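#dry-run=false #mode=assembly
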Amino acid sequence: MKKKEIIGGVLILTIITALSGYLLAQVYKTTKPAIEKQKKIEEEKVNRGIFPDGVEFIEKEENGVKYFSVLNSKKEEIGKIFTTSSLGYGGYIKIKVGIDKNGKIKGIKILQHNETPGLGAKITEDKFLSQFKGKTAEELYLKKDKSEGRIDAITGATISSRAVTDGVRKLLEKINKKEVRSEN
Amino acid sequence: MKIDFKNFIKGIWRENPIFYLMLGLCPLLAVSGSVRDSLGMGIAVIFVLTGSNFTVSLIRKFVPSHVRIPVFIVVIATFVTITDYSLAAISPQIHRNLGVYLPLIVVNCIILGRAEAYASKNNIINSILDGLGVGIGFTIAIFIISLIRELLGNGTIMGHQIMGANYTPFLIMIMPPGAFLVIGFLVAIKQGIEKRGKKC
Amino acid sequence: MLNQANLGLIFLSAFLVNNILLIRFLGLCSFFGISTQVKASTGMGIAVIFVTVMATSLSWAVYNYLLLPFHLEYLRTVTFILTIASFVQFEEIIIRKKLPTLYKAFGIYLPLITTNCAILACAFLGIDYKLSFIQNLVFSIGISSGYAFVIVLFASIRERLEISPLPEIFKGIPIAFITAGLMSLAFLGFKGLFKL
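#status=ok
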């Protein structure tokens, strides 16, 4: 008696699970294109925020590093957009960095962070981020860290500010080093 | 067929899942820092609860007692996954803000609790109503809590500045401790109200 | 990002900085229910560590070797919860046979672990952070010991609270939440630990 019960139970469970699996496969198929589209729209928005004059953003990969190549209406490359991460106060901060043809920062955007709300979280504000525009690697230090530095830290959020600054600078240094090497 | 409206209302007030039964705490605390996210979570819960109650009630005569819990769980997990992917397609921002707490609705005690306590024993219409009632109750509760937290902690509601520019936000409110404190005080108030009622 | 950190950082982050109970708010249902006594809490804590580590590793394997290669990622919610539930069931049977006294001590808590959000969350997070097997292992140990640590701490506070004078309306749930809130505040202080 008991064995029959168990087999019956397992059978029902298997049928339900199979039905569920089938249903979910359908849902997945239906929503997949919409999800992809949303992702692309979001990425475009961020890219465009950094390079407003960019017309096309093409994903490329060089030496294992992925980036977006920014083209203007004449199909010329006017810059590149990279993603990097830097260890902040509450964890890693994901940053998108736009670099123009002259190796200077075009703009940056914070993608993801775990910093303290009201303090470190202010790194997402334009007031802080706009400081990075047009800077070279030498200028990418907090004013309080180095005299050549041109970045003002957020009051009460030095570690977060420094994390972003250092992260962007290290990326810039890495990229410029590669470009110099490839030119030679 | 009798329509059980009493049960529907019960889910919203008297047996409100959060304030009364203390169930479903995890997503509540995590998401209630923002009114928009809370409403998103509320709608997700309503959808999953109603859907799973409906399904459980539908198949209740075919499911042997000793496998009912795993079966319920699979049903709930299916609805949660549907909600997960649908939300990702409709509003990626809310989906991202809800994060891991969305799939965690699966183990939300509220849903399994309703399936076990009501949907497996009642007809389809009433089960749907039950799901709606409890879901709405949950949403109202999380809305109230998030209203307090976002207003005090950020000065905004749904991102719109409500408090004046000179308002220094009570930052704790939108951080984890704030969630615990707000609920603690709200339940204390509720217990105070109940006590007063008993005295009369 | 977390998968670029070393194992020590992963553990600390899971155990303290992003503590599953006080910062991530997961595993709360059983938390408030069980933490009235230190003994029960210790038992629950140990059970959680055991189940979490094993179930998470199992789920990781299922995801990376079964779901991923066949592009069945969307089945992860269903598969994980089934994996955890079956594992708990399995564990219950074994413990009942081999260690009956331990089984009695756990009581109803063991099957209750299935609906413990903390375990399911741990499995999900390991996948979301794209951790390797070893990283996932350390991560799950961190998460579950963080849970055990907090629940025992909390229980010892609550035992004291039981016998202390409190305003009527605060007795029970309210003071428990307020206490949790204060503990959460303390744990927030660990956030700067990364720069160690």
